[in-house]
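Quick log. Single chain, no ligands specified.
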Amino acid sequence: MKKTLSIIVSLLLIFSTILNVKAFETNQIENSSNEVVEDNTNDSSINEDDLQDVDQNENTEIVDDNENSEINTTEGNDEITNQVTTNSPEEVITPKIMYKTHVQDYGWSNYISEGVSGTVGKSKRLEAIKMKLDLGSYEGSIEYATHIQDIGWTSFVSDDQLSGTEGKSKRLEAIKIKLVGDIANYYDVYYRVHIQDNGWLDWACNGTSAGSETYGKRLEGIEIKLIKKGDQIPENTQNPFIYPGYIYYSTHVQDYGWLSNIGDGKTSGTSGQSKRVEALKVSLCNLPYSGNVEYSTHIQDIGWQSYRKNGSISGTSGQSKRVEAIKIKLTGEISNYYDVYYRVHAQDLGWMSWTCNDSKAGTEGLELRVEAIQICLVEKGENAPGDISRPFVEQGKVEYSSHVQNIGWQNYVNNGNTSGTVGQGLRLEALKIKLGDNSYEGNIEYSTHVQDYGWMNYSSNDSISGTIGQSKRIEAIKIRLTGEISNYYDVFYRVQCQDFGWLGWTCNDRIAGTTGGGYRIESIQIKLYPKNITNPGISHLSCITFEDKNGFKVCKDANGTLYEDAQGLLGMKSSYVLRVNKSTNVVTVLAANGTGDYNIAYKRFVCSTGNDTPYGTYYTPVKYRWRYLVGPSYGQYCTRIVNGILFHSLPYDQRNPYTLQTSEFNKLGTTCSHGCVRLMCRDAKWIYDNCGLGTRVDIVSGADPLSKPSAPKIPANQRWDPTDPNI
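-> predicted structure:
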């Protein structure tokens, strides 16, 4: 009995040991690094026939016939040593990809695992796609995104989800496919597409784009393959995707509309055609990073618009408004890896310098159109595409305030706005000018020509030039820039003067206004213009100088040109004085200066007086279109001076302009009349038309302020006055 119990106990110990060994072997296999040692022997096994009787208190060793399996058990010791080698690893199952497409007019195709899904040669668009993986022995999934007509890139979907559209008749234009999870460590996914006009493109792989973007080309067919890493890949992989560039753009151009997309630094717009860019679209394409491109345009009459992004329109269409400047920036992940550079071709300036990352390119405040643009991406740390010295030019900032008669100091105005008054007859008495927030250092200096004082010393940077409380008018001004800013800007200015209105523009320390004439300045405009761009120019009518000559004032323009007929310089006046010089046979028309004195030599006429022409001062009482004269004869455009003394044309035999007394005409400029003042028809008519009744006439002898005009001669058979406006 005792022996039987001993055998039973031994068998139980052996069975327990076998169970522990099997559990240990399983645990070792699971926790090893998948290490498998090949063995050509059979698997270890233990059965009852191999057991030997042993005493419960003795050490027991069980050895299997399989020499590669050994189990050692020691009584009283929990340590179990196990060595297992097997030659039967679990069989690896190859994964498969399944895909199907939704085709124009046909609908959904069946799933396939190889070959073409879609059509070739039938001009049918793919509208949607689904795909899934039979993973086999691997874990993971497949993800895919499509570029859809009018929509753009969709988000990635996975595992039999639809990418694209149904029932909307929208074409797929491109696709990206990628593996995720464990399977991506062992396999690559390759795919190629058949597209409109181009046919089969090259193979793409692992999330890169296949197809086209911006060209409106439909996908017509697709082929997808899973290829084990290290295995042979498809031959052609160079050009799986057609696109304008990593950054591409289009401009809306005057008379042309939207131009085709172009990218990576190429020119969009025109050059040499004077066509304005009116709007802009910018997009990113086929980059390995996420993010956006954002942009803002400065528009004529509108200013800076809010930012647009990723192909939306910035600018206007159908409003004939020019783009004047632009800012572009990258946002999101891509901004960590790239800078966006851009430059514009601007009216008058041509190609400006490059700038980047939301800086301004173009002009502002100068009314210059952008005509073309170039944009490109540059990796961080790399050099700019070209010169970066002057990408943006703006009107300089200047502010000014006037002290006005009866009003005092006005509020500051800036950049070409009017300071002072217009149409109120009020004088400027003092002025302050200062620079605004400009990009360059420097000063603005100015000097005023003041009644009774003449030119004042230069003031600068908001100090006062002129007088306060003395009732003295400013008559002229000079303004200049000094320091760094003078290298980049010109200061332009013009004044509105008593009797003359706005004079022309001038710049850079030249005189604006009048000197010597007693005319007040009533208002002023000042602008800073960048050098070498279109500006108002320097007008010869920006300044009028009245110089003394023989007791009168003669007129000169800003270039110093003497005006012996100042009508074009001074304009028409409301009244005049007529000075008849018997000794020179010259009539000088005198105009009033700013204080009302008739001392400005306005114009002169050659005449013929007579010995009986009386000296003295007279006032014209009456006028006649034709008048009977002594001789007998007739005169045109007659203005009576006194008694029988008139201004009139050369004599005619009849009241007919074709009966001119030619011999008398050819005596013009000599003392030959019966006492009247004879003039060419044109000059007699000017007095008749412009000198009202009561005009003062001074008949004198002496020196004239202006030269004597030459008197023309006509042939003996010519019976009309060549200056007669009616002939």
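The first strand starts at residue 60 and ends at 63.
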